[in-house]
Write a structure and sequence with these properties.
With about 550 residues, the chain is α/β, with parallel strands linked by helices. It contains twelve helices and 23 strands. It is globular, with a radius of gyration of 26 Å.
């Protein structure tokens, strides 16, 4: 008998269990899977013993297996973030299931504001391996291709679960390795899947949230380069379409250093945004130099922050400062007037050490100016992440591409000029620390893309310009990344809520919805006499797109 997932604010549901788990060959999970389920609010379970039908060691999902039809009796509670929805959730009998069935009703599925739940949990358990009812799609034994909705593929060594886009196991585009259910989707490894040992079940987070759409409220890009002139006309609409606001970098030629230049640049930005201008708030910055109290007071109404560049460390930073000590009188004024300080934190030392060497300067500034809100821009190291927790007035932005790539992606094989940026991508352990902080929605970390367009001829040449132009793919790529890690409920904080809280912002009331619909990123953007720019992920098929 079907059990509806009602469109209520709270929903409780249970999964049916099949036959005796048989020492890990059923849906039994080891210790290392517990944290995965606990992220979804599942607690209070018992250790799984050999012979139990269903269980999660250290989590919940505790059932009893007598070899003929154990039922799951614990409650599973799963909340999806604001604006999220739950689709394609399936009842999964374990390996050898005969009579697994759903045994529960709705208590909590969505946070307030979530979309209506459109799916029904079907009773399952027919057939020697508990095939799923149509239209879910199921492939068994020899790795048949799954359908276009959530499905399950099984082989004698272990069960694998795919959701949403048709996953292939064994003899196909994906694999199940050595009976431990390491899952691949379309030949690409899923990051950090929950893994069961001894031929058990492999789950991806999408089993719990096979969404067809995902909505973000007032997304913000806290570090954006829009350039000027023809380049501004090309790139501004792409950012304004996705975001309710963005912090605009001032390193033009010449840099933005006065209230007149600032207000004129803001007007050009809004004009370039076209139809998206009404829902987009440019948060304007001045290029750091020595300012008087009168100059700052005149600009304050139009000014979000001041951006500090050390001399010569990145694009158009030739007018940057030579001495941190000499800059302190202006910093004192900024502290008194509540103007945030944004910092490109690199020295001119060895390229891999430049950010690490600058961290001591952040420490000095945080201590000397305790009421000055300091943002470490586009951090790239584990050491910078650790520094966030040491000083109350220290915050940071991080780029999506630094959550994914390392230096090896840039220069480990053929040189990839469109991944070259400053700060340069670092080591895997640095990337992993940044990713962990972002996935956890660290309260002092904000998404700042550092999307930085350059004409194709300036990237594909000797003396390649530094900058990754990520604007066209930012939100689709982030939804893909956070979904793969079971962290979609934290994406809202990372792309908006943290920045709103930290800076006291009130961006336009804009929602941006993405749909699960594959699209291929264009090889380049141009047209109408505008420059040609190659985006991040050019030519790659992404599973999410803007609605």
């Amino acid at each position: 008998m079907p059990v509806s997932l009602l469109p209520a604010a709270d929903a409780k549901f249970l999964f049916g269990a099949g036959e005796d788990g048989g020492g890990g060959t059923g849906a039994g999970f080891a210790d290392h899977a517990a944290g995965f389920w606990e992220e979804f609010g599942i607690e209070g379970g018992e250790a799984l013993e050999e012979g139990d039908g269903v269980g999660l060691h250290g989590g919940s999902f505790i059932g009893h297996g007598d070899g003929t039809g154990g039922e799951l009796e614990e409650t599973v509670v799963h909340a999806i973030g604001p604006g999220g929805s739950l689709e394609g959730l399936v009842n999964i009998p374990p390996h050898g299931g005969v009579s697994g069935r759903v045994h529960g009703e709705v208590e909590r599925v969505l946070h307030p504001g979530g979309d209506e739940v459109r799916v029904v949990l079907e009773a399952a358990g027919h057939g020697p391996r508990g095939a799923l009812p149509e239209p879910r799609g199921a492939g068994f034994d020899e790795g048949e291709e799954l359908g276009k909705a959530a499905g399950i593929a099984s082989n004698p060594g272990g069960d694998g679960i795919g959701a949403g886009t048709g996953v292939i196991f064994e003899n196909g585009g994906g694999e199940v390795h050595d009976g431990i259910g390491r899952e691949w989707s379309g030949g690409r490894e899923m990051r950090n899947p929950a893994v069961a040992r001894d031929g058990g079940l492999c789950l991806d987070a999408r089993l719990m949230s096979a969404l067809s759409s995902f909505t973000l409220s007032r997304p913000l890009d806290m570090h954006l380069h829009l350039r000027d002139g023809e380049m501004l006309s090309l790139v501004a609409p792409l950012s304004a379409e996705q975001f309710a606001g963005a912090v605009i970098m001032p390193n033009l030629v010449p840099p933005v250093t006065s209230v007149e230049m600032l207000t004129a640049y803001r007007a050009r930005i809004l004009a370039a945004c076209g139809v998206h201008a009404e829902g987009f708030q440019p948060l304007m910055t001045l290029f750091f130099q020595q300012y008087t109290e009168g100059q700052l007071a005149a600009a304050r109404e139009h000014l979000f922050a001041i951006k500090l560049y050390p001399h010569g460390v990145t694009t158009n930073s030739e007018s940057g400062i030579h001495s941190i000590d000499a800059a302190q009188p202006t910093m004192r004024l900024m502290e008194e007037m509540g103007i945030p300080l944004l910092v490109h934190g690199e020295t001119t030392g060895f390229v891999m050490d430049r950010e690490r060497e600058f961290l001591s300067i952040y420490e000095r500034l945080a201590v000397k100016f305790p009421r000055l809100r300091i943002v470490m821009e586009h951090i790239t190291t584990a050491a910078a992440v650790a520094l966030l927790d040491r000083f109350e007035n220290l915050h940071a932005t991080v780029t999506p591409h630094h959550l994914i790539i390392t230096l090896d992606d840039v220069a480990g094989g053929m040189l990839q000029p469109h991944l070259f940026c400053k700060p340069i991508a670092k080591r895997p352990e640095d990337r992993d620390a940044l990713l962990a902080a972002a996935l956890a929605a660290h309260p002092k970390l904000m998404m700042g893309s550092d999307s930085a367009p350059h004409p194709q001829h300036a990237k594909e040449c000797c003396g390649c310009a530094a900058g990754v132009w990520s604007a066209p793919v930012l939100l689709p790529r982030l939804v893909e990344l956070f979904e793969a890690h079971g962290a979609l409920d934290r994406l809202q904080a990372f792309v908006s809520d943290n920045a709103v809280r930290i800076h006291g912002l009130n961006p336009p009331a804009k929602t941006v919805t993405l749909v699960r619909e594959p699209w291929r990123v264009p090889a380049a953007y141009s047209g109408g006499g505008l420059p040609t720019v190659v985006p991040w992920e050019a030519g790659r098929e992404l599973p999410w797109r803007l609605a």
